[in-house]
Specification:
This is Molybdopterin molybdenumtransferase. Its EC number is 2.10.1.1. One of its GO terms (cellular component) is cytosol. Belongs to the MoeA family. By secondary structure, the protein is α/β, with parallel strands linked by helices. It has 4 domains: 158 residues, Molybdenum Cofactor Biosythetic Enzyme, Chain A (3-Layer(aba) Sandwich), CATH 3.40.980; 58 residues, Molybdopterin biosynthesis moea protein, domain 2 (Alpha-Beta Complex), CATH 3.90.105; 88 residues, Beta Complex (Molybdopterin biosynthesis moeA protein, domain 3); 71 residues, Beta Barrel (Beta-clip), CATH 2.40.340. Helices cover 17% and strands 29% of the residues. It is built from 7 helices and 27 strands. A 6-stranded mixed β-sheet has the order 15-12-16-20-19-17, with helices on both faces. Strands 7-4-6-5-8 form a 5-stranded mixed β-sheet, with no helix packed on it. The structure holds ligand LQZAQKY5 and molybdate ion.
């Protein structure tokens, strides 16, 4: 796709976002056991085939009674009833309750026909052959009605729902053993750079610890994708192609970081130019040098800049929404808020700024956190949002209303 350029000669952020989004088609739908669905997106509405609760059941351990039999009960004048059945949760038959009797009943057990209330055990003497009921009960007391939570035919989850713990819980509760979900996007994360060494090994002058690969793979997983991490890919073009080759059939998206700006040793740019990937400068800070396309007609590729904050911010702005949309998530975007800036900011013109910041939900304010430098990863690690400042703005007084993207 040709790059649209803005007045600055740079590609507008929204153009690059749209381009990256076109690279990833919707992932195929597959049926998975519930245990394998965490973090995925539901592909179809989940319609309840049973009500919840499935039957009238007790909310308390106690005695199932007819409320009219205990109208006069009090601690001073208990009503004595014979106990004719014991109803633990899970008992399959449900003997009816005869007038003037009680069934001992446990939480979750089916309320027998004939009973219309449960008296908690604490309001009785706890008898097993006979029970002294010391309190009256309103009709319906401590009875959880069938269908009170979910009625048959209700869509308990809509297509596009992200499946977290409670969504999996409700799916199991209505009896779904498997769910139709979109297969997670398979992402190959590559890092290159001769200066990089593995955390845990000694650092020599001129070297730094590799962090982007791990960070981006974690970001992919966090976004619901399935990452595979290839670190320390050698810095020459042939080795780069050789490293990719075994993964092409099983990869939807390749993400690289580094090796794309104007240096003499830009292996990513050298290897991917002419192989389906186009490079551009995007009107944003951090994250200016970007590339995207399809590697040799195969997997989608997004090349992120190497500076760690640039890599992470551009993942957030370009990759994460595209990845989540392709994986079927309705909430593909980070939530955004408007907030009041606590201190003034001066901003270079012409590029959309993404400043790391701290959003205070209680008072609706946002405070820039750390400087604008794209190597300042520690501030990003302790920030909770990105402050998004449009290209044309160069000055923001304290008290300005600004947009923030919430990161957690
Ligand atoms: N003459 C120019 N120089 C630079 C330009 C430019 O337009 N003209 N752009 C600058 C901007 S903006 C950025 S961002 C960076 C992007 O450079 P690259 O994407 O080519 O990245 P590298 O040069 O490989 O690395 C940049 C920086 O990040 C560190 N890095 C790289 N990979 C990792 C990793 N996996 N883990 C941790 N840190 C990593 C690397 O050591 C460098 O410090 O270019 C500017 N220069
Ligand atoms: O645009 Mo680069 O991404 O600032 O550091």
């Amino acid at each position: 796709m040709p790059h649209a350029t803005g007045p600055s000669g740079l590609t507008p952020v929204r153009e690059h976002q749209a381009w990256v989004a076109t690279l990833l088609p919707p992932a195929p739908v597959e049926s998975r056991p519930l245990t394998d669905c965490l973090g995925l997106a539901l592909a179809e509405d989940l319609v309840a085939a049973i009500p919840l609760p499935p039957f009238d059941n007790s909310a308390m351990d106690g005695y199932a009674v007819r409320s009219v039999d205990v109208t006069e009960a009090s601690p001073q004048h208990p009503v004595q009833l014979p106990v004719s059945e014991d109803l633990p949760a899970g008992r399959l038959d449900s003997p009816p309750l005869l007038p003037g009797t009680a069934h001992r009943i446990m939480t979750g057990a089916q309320v027998p026909s004939g009973a219309d209330a449960v008296v908690p055990v604490e309001r009785t003497d706890g008898g097993t052959a006979e029970v002294q009921v010391q309190a009256s009960a309103q009709p319906g007391a401590h009875v959880r009605r069938a269908g009170e939570d979910v009625q048959v035919g209700t869509a308990v989850l809509a297509a596009g729902a992200s499946l977290g713990p409670t969504q999996l819980g409700i799916a199991a509760a209505v009896g779904a053993a498997r769910l139709p979900v979109r297969r997670p996007i398979r992402v190959l994360v590559l890092s290159t750079g001769s200066e990089l060494v593995e955390p845990g090994s000694p650092l020599r002058t001129g070297q730094i610890y590799e962090s982007n690969g791990l960070m981006l793979a974690a970001a992919v997983r966090d976004a619901g994708g399935k990452p595979e991490l290839l670190r320390f890919v050698p810095d020459d073009v042939d080795s780069f192609h050789a490293a990719l080759a075994p993964h092409l059939e099983t990869t939807d998206l390749i993400i690289t970081s580094g090796g794309v700006s104007a240096g003499a040793y830009e292996v990513v740019k050298d290897a991917l130019s002419g192989n389906g990937v186009e490079f551009t400068k995007v009107a944003m800070q951090p994250g200016m040098p970007q590339g995207a396309g399809h590697y040799r007609g195969g997997p989608a590729v997004v090349t992120l800049p190497g500076n760690p904050v640039s890599a992470m911010v551009s993942f957030e702005i370009f990759v994460r929404p595209a990845l989540r949309r392709a994986a079927g998530h309705r909430d593909a975007e980070r939530p955004s808020r408007q907030a009041t800036l606590t201190r003034p900011l001066e901003i270079p013109a012409g590029k959309r700024q993404y400043r790391r910041a701290l959003f205070d939900a209680a008072d609706g304010t946002v405070t820039p956190h750390g400087g604008p430098g794209s190597h300042l990863l520690s501030a990003m690690a302790t920030a909770n949002c990105l402050l998004e400042i449009p290209e044309e703005i160069t000055e923001l007084p304290a008290g300005s209303t600004v947009d923030v993207l919430l990161m957690d």
